[in-house]
Amino acid sequence: MTNNMKILEVCTVSSSAYALVFQRAHALNQRHAGRMQVDLLCSDGPEVALMQEKGMQALVETLHRSLNPLQLARSAWNLRRAIKRGGYDAVHLHFGIPGLVGRFLALFDQQTVWIYQSHGYSIAENTSPLARWVYLLIEKALKKTVRYSLFQLHGDMELARQHKLLSEEQMVYLGNGVDLQRFAPASEERDAGHPTVFGMVARFEPIKNHALLLDAVELLAKQTRDFKVKLIGQGHLKAQVQALIQQKGLADVVEIAEYSNDMPEFYRSIDVGMLTSFAEGIPRALIEPMACGKPVICTDVKGSREAIIDQQTGFKSPIGSAAELAQHMLWFIQHPQQCQQMGNAAREHALQHFAEERIINALGKLYLSCGEPLHQEKTHDLHCRH
After folding, report:
1. Which residues contact residue 267 at a Cβ distance below 8 angstroms, ignoring those fewer than 6 apart?
2. Domain containing 157 — which CATH number?
3. Domain of 158, in residue numbers
4. What are the CA-CA distances from residue 110 to residues 64, 99, 105, 107 (Å)?
5. Number of C-beta neighbours around residue 192 at 10 A
6. Which residues contact 101 (CB under 8 A, 6 or more apart)?
7. I need a surface site. Which of 12, 144, 262, 267 has the fewest CB within 10 A?
8. Are residues 170 and 250 in the same domain?
């Protein structure tokens, strides 16, 4: 085994690297000092300095988010240069452009151990049959590029088996988890009698489906305006969502909060978490508020439906029904005591199923195995096939 494994985790943007990867990578470096070193690579952003100040080796390379062939080629070149310069033994590619260009590079680099984490296959409720076919074809073509493919969803693993996208030896169930000490209920309960506050943490992008939420809020506002909705995120549709809020006359009940990296504080300021996506992995936008003792409402789509227990930790709502989404919101407004009880159940659910410690243990074992020849006998205990 290599004495000190060097692993590079690759994300497209610094905000994702900080929110999704930094804490666990930092923990792995402390726990396995002398045996492994995990570095991060992402495009430049304010979070890079935050990570570097806390001792993380955070590399900056431009990874374009465009699918333009020239931009993809530049992203691939930048990633290859960083890998060679750092002498990394293994590269952990996260969803998006890193996953695409990295696996392309893997076709020509057999020495590096390549790991891919999809965060949920890109097949949503609104994916056309043609787009679905093309996506599966690409996944099948890239099958042999990675040693391990990490999954957050059991449903995606079944999809991979059904279409023979991967072998059993490549598939590892990782799930998702958060720091349950950092994401925890407030020490004091919120004052009674305040308007019910709903919060949604989501990028302002089409897949997050903000339009459904605003349609539901428009219906809800015809019955009561004794509530608030806080939206927080980044993305190219932010101005469009803001314009839609104004157009629907909802500026007094819906606000786009300033983006912050202190997400526990945001969740403690709300009563109910929401997520209206067309598809998800196991979304932190649901497990983080649940960990903070908040019930949630989500669309009944892959990923989200695996994260919650319907009618116990929150509600699932049909993807096409703004009216039903509005009714779920109204129920929480009208039942504050049950809202608190559901929040308590949500916290217990997070404690049982979404502890980051389990993720850190699994990744530590997997990274160390990258220094060994690939044998089914040695990797059997990494895999979860149920």
Report:
1. 183, 199, 273, 288, 289, 292, 294
2. 3.40.50.2000
3. 5-177+355-382
4. 25, 16, 9, 7
5. 7
6. 63, 72, 75, 76, 79
7. 262
8. no
- The DSSP-derived string for 67-97 is --HHHHHHHHHHHHHHHHHHT-SEEEEETTH
Look at the chain and report how many structural domains it folds into.
Answer: 2
Amino acid 382 reads L
Does residue 247 fall inside a structural domain?
Answer: yes
Structure tokens at 58: 């955070």
> What phi and psi, each to the nearest 5 degrees, are found at residue 91?
-125, 125
Residue 342 CB burial class (10 angstroms; 0-12, 13-18, ≥19): buried
